[in-house]
């Protein structure tokens, strides 16, 4: 499985950005895709996650009401719409896939495949 992340870039506070993660290769029928972010000297933090079925999502408290994760199974793509961005959202964002049978894990070590990071910078 390979994950290709796209999107990101520079935005002003209050603005929006959209990240996309496209998976290629064989995956199980049930998996979870998560978006993590990392700043220097800190652990990767799960920002949002979604089951392949789309019937369950997770958001970390700091992004609830501002970020929306969605999936397009026909395109094997998971999107993260980020609105009302804040400077503290600045980080390198990674998408990851967990062959977890649908269980959403917060621990990054539970994720089997990772895309390349994409920088998100929010200016004040």
Total helical elements: 0
User: Uncertain segments of ≥5 residues (pLDDT<50)?
Assistant: none
Structural class: mainly beta
Task: Assign a percent range to the helix content.
Answer: under 10%
Give the strand tally: 11
Coarse shape: globular
Regarding quaternary structure, what we see is single chain
Order of helices and strands: EEEEEEEEEEE
Radius of gyration: 13 Å
Q: How would you explain this protein's 3D organization?
A:
- This protein is mainly β.
- The chain is built from no helices and 11 strands.
- It has strands spanning 2-7, 9-12, 17-24, 32-38, 45-51, 57-59, 67-72, 77-82, 91-98, 113-114, 118-123.
- Strands 2, 4, 5, 6, 9, 10 and 11 form a 7-stranded mixed β-sheet that branches. Strands 1-3-8-7 form a 4-stranded antiparallel β-sheet, with no helix packed on it.
- The model has no long low-confidence stretch (mean pLDDT 95).
């Amino acid at each position: 499985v390979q994950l290709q992340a796209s999107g990101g870039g520079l935005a002003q506070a209050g603005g929006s950005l959209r990240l996309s993660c496209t998976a290629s290769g064989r995956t199980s029928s049930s998996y979870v895709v998560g978006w993590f972010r990392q700043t220097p000297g800190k652990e990767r933090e799960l920002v949002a996650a979604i089951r392949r079925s789309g019937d369950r999502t997770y958001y970390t408290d700091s992004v609830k009401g501002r970020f929306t994760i969605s999936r397009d199974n026909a395109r094997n793509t998971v999107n993260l719409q980020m609105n009302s961005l804040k400077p503290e959202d600045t980080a390198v964002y990674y998408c990851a896939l967990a062959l977890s049978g649908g269980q959403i894990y917060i621990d990054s070590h539970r994720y089997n495949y990772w895309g390349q990071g994409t920088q998100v910078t929010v200016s004040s």
